[in-house]
Amino acid sequence: MVVSYEPFHRSGLATVCPITTRAPKYPGEVLIPDGHAGQTRDGLILVHQLRTIDLRRVTALEISGAIQYVTSRPLRRAVRAALAHQLGLDIPAAADGAA
Q1: pLDDT tens, 49-91?
Q2: What pLDDT digit, counting tens, does each position of 16-36 carry?
Q3: How confident is residue 45, by pLDDT bands cut at 50, 70 and 90?
Q4: Average pLDDT of the segment spanning 43-53
Q5: What does each C-alpha distance from 24 to 16, 30, 44 come to in angstroms?
Q6: Backbone conformation region of residue 57, classed left if phi is above 0, alpha if psi is from -120 to 50, else beta
Q7: Residue 27 neighbours by CB under 8 Å, 6+ apart
Q8: CA angle, corner 49, sides to 43 and 20, nearest 5?
């Protein structure tokens, strides 16, 4: 799942979270149900495996029409909340000395 914004994509990169169909193991994994964004099975968005990729790697997917979009607002909110927690952005700045 791509979690970065379009201006960043113009650099030729995208930040993504992989999706798997295995059983949940770790905190912060977000369920993506069958039928959302082209999923044919229930899956998990692995927020803790956040990475940046070169967009040249996904050109073939774009051409084939394999790219789908998550349109569910609750699912998008759950991913944002999991990302904020994973990156510590949900901790008040004063608690980590950034104030």
Answers
A1: 999 999 887 766 555 556 677 878 999 999 999 999 998 888 8
A2: 898 888 888 888 899 988 877
A3: very high
A4: 92
A5: 19, 9, 7
A6: alpha
A7: 48, 85
A8: 20
Q: What is the pLDDT of residue 62?
A: 58
Cα pseudo-dihedral 40, 43, 45, 49, rounded to 10: -110
Q: What is the CATH number of the domain that holds 56?
A: 2.30.30.110
Q: Give the chain's domain count.
A: 1
Residue whose token pair is 């051409």? 63
pTM for this entry: 0.77
Domain of 67 in residue numbering reads as 6-92
For residue 7, the Cα-to-chain-centroid distance in whole angstroms is: 17
Would you say residue 99 lies in a domain? no
Q: What gap in Å lies between CA 23 and CA 97, rounded to an integer?
A: 36
Assigned domain for 97 exists: no
CA distance 72 to 2: 14
